[in-house]
Design goal:
By secondary structure, the chain is of the alpha/beta class. Helix content is 35%, strand content 24%. The protein is globular, with a radius of gyration of 21 Å. It binds flavin-adenine dinucleotide (FAD). Flavin-adenine dinucleotide binds next to α1, β3 and α9.
Amino acid sequence: MSGAKKPKILIAGGGIGGMTVGAALLQRGFDVEIFEQADELREVGAGIQISPNGNRALDSIGAFETLRKLSCRAQSKEVRLWNSGKVWKLFDMGPEELARYGYPYLTVYRPDLLTACADAVKRQRPDSIHLNSRCAGFEEKNGQVVLTLENGAKHFGDGLIGCDGVNSMVRKLTANDEPSKYPGLMIWRGVIPLQSLPERMRASMAVNWIGPNGHCVHYPLREGEILNLAATIEKPVWDEEAWSAEGRKSQCHEDYAGWHDDVHTMIEAAPKLLKWAYLTRQPLNRYSYGRATLLGDACHPTLPFLAQGAVMALEDGVVLARCLEKYGDVPTAFQKYQDARMTRDNAMVAGANDMVSRFHNPDYRDAAKADAYIDREWSASAIAARYEWLFTYNCDTAPI
Ligand SMILES: Cc1cc2nc3c(=O)[nH]c(=O)nc-3n(C[C@H](O)[C@H](O)[C@H](O)COP(=O)(O)OP(=O)(O)OC[C@H]3O[C@@H](n4cnc5c(N)ncnc54)[C@H](O)[C@@H]3O)c2cc1C
């Protein structure tokens, strides 16, 4: 696209996805306004894994170097059996992996990630982020989009990107499909000062404990100062009023009755534990509707069992900005973005669903069956088949 004035793009939602696409568009000279409902930029105080493909996207918006300095590179990843604690080493996260994918696998404190993405926006246009701005509706009129905020204010632009998460307003007004639902799985989340754990549990390692009805992931954050604990358990009914709540340690211990002492040591060491319900939705077969489109959890919320939800939002952001730069015309660009991303996004969501039976499996009750299952499902070739296509993607050069 050359010469003509670039379209003005409105973004609903200032999370990881909204900030990434905002930064990528500003880099390309687009006028951007981001509307976030919260009164400050907020992320839950927990960890998140960013694989090499996500770090490539962060580098593309100029957020990688800052974040790398704040995050952790676990040296290896391993699987442990829920009751015996038996260890299977999965892969090293060392120099070979860096050479292979071009970027490392980082474990990151979520607030640091959001800050890094928001800074990439603010460095270019500090006044493009509007807080306290809950988007209530939009319409397409005379070749423009009109976005209405809950306070009645109206904003005009050439395109609207719905980055407003799993219960997206933009999705409701476009796809209007079934709402999100609780899939019978919840997660306990805690952040533990590493010093409060016994010496032998302080190694720089990402660990997946796998069991018959739950699993438990932990990894270091913030240069190894803290450990992120994320423990998923099957619970048919969610009986809290909100989708997240502070939980009692005794309840968490109960959920993991029979699990190895190391798991209980971590539960006990957590200063605070939060309970979260997962939410899922049916995959979409369309993201783009004229001058409106969807990005990140708004179009492909996922169980986080491949650790790719935010990473896909990062990739979406860079690819969508490239499409707008290349095609200029907003509806065409949004259609091309959908063509470039939807198959990959949906394959990631399906892959994450498939992980449930690998993390939670009745065979894990029996040591011999567990050995056979883990040797098969967690072999080097099985792991490569699950992750290689994800990690090797290049959002800067993928066909659009
Ligand atoms: C327990 C757990 C662990 C996870 N681990 C990983 C991992 O290791 N790696 C990974 O890549 N992903 C992981 N994910 C997934 C990841 O957190 C999400 O995919 C990611 O946060 C999606 O970003 P987003 O910007 O699309 O949506 P969100 O983060 O939901 O952001 C949406 C934003 O929009 C705002 N908003 C909503 N409605 C409105 C409105 N009407 N008007 C204005 N603003 C609005 C919200 O306030 C929010 O700021 C995990 C998820 C969970 C639950």
